[in-house]
Amino acid sequence: MSVNISTEVHQTTIRKKKKRLRTNPRVLLLLIPPLIWLTVFLFAPYFTLFLNSFWKVDFGTIVHEFTWDNYTKFFTNELYYGTLLKTLKIASLVTIFSVLLSYPLAYFINFKVKKNKQLMYTLVIIPLWVSYLVRAYAWKIVLGQDGILNNVLISLGIIDKPLEIFLYSPYAVILALTHIYTPWVLMSIYTSLEHIPRNLKEASQDLGAGRFRTFFKIILPLSLPGVIAGATFAFVLTMGDFLAPQLLGGTSSMMISNVVYSLFGVANNWPLGSTIGIVTLVLVLIILEITHRLEKRTSGFENKEV
Fold this sequence. Notes:
Keywords: Cell membrane, Membrane, Transmembrane, Transmembrane helix, Transport. With about 300 residues, the protein is mainly α.
C-alpha cells in the first residue's frame, strides 16, 4: 500500500514539473533556437526531399508535375530494389560480426581484467581516433593486389601470384565496415556490462549456478539493451555508408547510398534519387522503432530482475 502511495506521489510531482516547464516563458524562449535549427537543417530538407520524389525529369530538366512514376520505377526495377536488399544484407552481416567481435571482448575487459582495465578499453577504441577515410584506405592497401595480404601469402608459398578476389568485392566492404563500426558497438556493450551489479553474478554462483547458466540467465539478459543499441548503431550507419563500397567494393558491390549519389551527382535525376532516399529513410525509421521497442522491453526486464 505504501509503495502505491509513494508511486502516485512521484507521478504527481513529475506532472507538476512538466506543467511548470510548459508554462514557464523562459523555458519556451530556450526552446526556440533548437526548434529553429531542427526546422531549417532537418525538417525542411526532408520535406523538400519528399516533394522532389513526386516530380519527374524531362530531358534532364526537373518538371514540377505530380507523378508516382518514381516510386513505381523503384519497386519494379531490380537495379534499385535489388540494391536496397543487398544493402540490407551487408548491413545485417556487418551488425552480426560487430556484435560477435564486441561482446566477448567487452565481457573480457569488464569481468576478467583486474589491472589497467581503462588502458585496455582505451586501446580497443583507439581506431576511433583515426579518420574514417584513413581506415578505409588502409584496407585498400591491405587487400590490394600489391597489398600486405597478397605479399604475405606469396612469401609463405601459399599462392604463386597476387589474387584479385580480396579487393572490389562485398567481402572487402563487410570486412572494412565491421572494423570501422566494431568499436562503437563495443562501447555500447561495455557500458551495459559495466552497470550490471557484481553481487548478482556472485549470488548466482553462490546458489550453485555454473558459469554458462550465470551468463545466459543473468549477464546476457541484463546486457541486451546495450547489445541492441550497439547493433542498431552499426546497422543504421552501414545502411547509409557509401564511401567504403566506393573504395573497396567496386561496381559489383554498390550499396543504396552509392545509387543515390550517382542519381544526384551524375545522372541529374533528383526526383528518383529523392524517392530512394525517402524509401530508405522510412525503412530506417521502422527499424529504429522496432529496436527502440526491443530495447525498452529488455530494459523493463532488467529493472524487473534487479
